[in-house]
C-alpha cells in the first residue's frame, strides 16, 4: 500500500508540473539552443521531474512503520545535498560537471557518517587499496 501511495503522490506532482508548465517553463526548460550542458530536448520541456520523485519518496517514508522510517529519514538527510544541487541546475543555474560530483561526494560522506557503513575489503589482493581509509574511499565514493 505504501508503494501505491508514493507512486500516486509522485504521479500527481508530475501532473501538476506538466499542467503548470506555462508558468515555470521559462525557468525550468533548458537545452533548446544547445546552450545547456545536457541539451537533449527539441521542444521546451520542464526539467524539474526530480521534485515528483522526491515527493514520492517523502510520501512513502511518511507511510512506513516507525522502525523502518528510522532508517529512511537519515537516508533522506544524506540525499539533500544532491537534490538541492540538481534542483539548482534544473531551475537555471549553470552548474559545471564538477559541482554535482562534489555534492555526490558530500552526500556519500554524510551517509557514511550517519549509517557508519562503507565498502569493506573486496577480496582481490591488488584492488583492496580502493577501500582503505584516506586512500581509496574518496575514489570509491566518486
Question: Which descriptors apply to this entry?
Answer:
flat, mainly alpha, 142 residues
Short structural description:
With 142 residues, this protein is mostly helical. It has helices spanning 2-19, 21-28, 49-63, 66-90, 98-115, 137-141.
Name the shape in a single word: flat
Unreliable residue runs: none
Assign the structural class, choosing from mainly alpha, mainly beta, alpha/beta, alpha+beta, or little secondary structure.
mainly alpha
**Count of β-strands:** 0
Radius of gyration: 19 Å
Averaging pLDDT over every residue, what do you get? 76
Strand coverage percent? under 5%
Task: Please describe what this structure looks like.
This protein has about 140 residues and is an all-alpha fold. The protein is built from 6 helices and no strands. The chain has helices at about 1-20, 20-30, 50-65, 65-90, 100-115, 135-140. The radius of gyration is 19 Å and the shape is flat. The protein starts with a helix and ends with a helix. The model has no long low-confidence stretch (mean pLDDT about 75).
Structural topology:
Blueprint: H1 2-19, H2 21-28, H3 49-63, H4 66-90, H5 98-115, H6 137-141
Amino acid at each position: 500500500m505504501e508503494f501505491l501511495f508514493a507512486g500516486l503522490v509522485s504521479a500527481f506532482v508530475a501532473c501538476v508540473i506538466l499542467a503548470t508548465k506555462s508558468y515555470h517553463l521559462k525557468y525550468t526548460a533548458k537545452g533548446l539552443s544547445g546552450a545547456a550542458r545536457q541539451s537533449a530536448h527539441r521542444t521546451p520541456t520542464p526539467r524539474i521531474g526530480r521534485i515528483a520523485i522526491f515527493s514520492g519518496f517523502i510520501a512513502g517514508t511518511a507511510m512506513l512503520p516507525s522502525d523502518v522510517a528510522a532508517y529512511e529519514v537519515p537516508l533522506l538527510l544524506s540525499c539533500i545535498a544532491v537534490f538541492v544541487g540538481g534542483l539548482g541546475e534544473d531551475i537555471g543555474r549553470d552548474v559545471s560537471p564538477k559541482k554535482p560530483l562534489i555534492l555526490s561526494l558530500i552526500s556519500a560522506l554524510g551517509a557514511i557518517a550517519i549509517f557508519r557503513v562503507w565498502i569493506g575489503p573486496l577480496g582481490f589482493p591488488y584492488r583492496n587499496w580502493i577501500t582503505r581509509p584516506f586512500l581509496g574511499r574518496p575514489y570509491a565514493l566518486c
